[in-house]
Write a structure and sequence with these properties.
Layout (H helix, E strand, L loop, with lengths): L1 E7 L5 E8 L10 H18 L4 E7 L4 E9 L4 H21 L4 E7 L9
Parallel strand pairs: 1-5
Antiparallel strand pairs: 1-2, 2-4, 3-4
Helix pairs in contact: 1-2
């Protein structure tokens, strides 16, 4: 199972993201659920990475674990960052809805969202 913990700020944007695991739909390298998750995650991270106004750290402990902590979002991209987060979280939520036994998302802190899968 891919387990994702998303810590959102009081504004509802991603402050921290931790993803651990493997969906288990198929063997590594052929798993379409993992592929869908990877596309969502990479697109989000590379979009954030392209903005000089967003400061963040990322920890990639190899296959099956990823952690990202956003430390600053500049005022010039606040609206854009919200849109990037909304896009990512919508896709992630849809993936969990399609494959609830393979993807679990938990939201924390000031998210205003309910915890799923607990």
């Amino acid at each position: 199972m891919i387990e994702v913990t998303v810590i959102l700020s009081s504004e509802g944007v991603v402050e921290e993201l931790v993803a651990v695991g493997h969906a288990g739909y198929a063997p590594r390298g052929t798993d379409i659920v993992c592929s869908a998750f990877t596309v969502l995650l990479r697109t989000f991270v590379r979009t954030v990475e392209a903005s000089a106004e967003v400061s963040w750290t990322v920890e990639d402990d190899g296959p099956g674990r990823f952690q990202m902590v956003v430390t600053r979002v500049g005022p010039g991209v606040t609206g854009q960052y919200r849109g990037w987060c909304d896009f990512f979280l919508r896709g992630l939520g849809d993936l969990q809805g399609d494959e609830p036994g393979m993807v679990r998302i938990e939201y924390g802190r000031d998210s205003g969202r309910l915890f799923h899968g607990s």
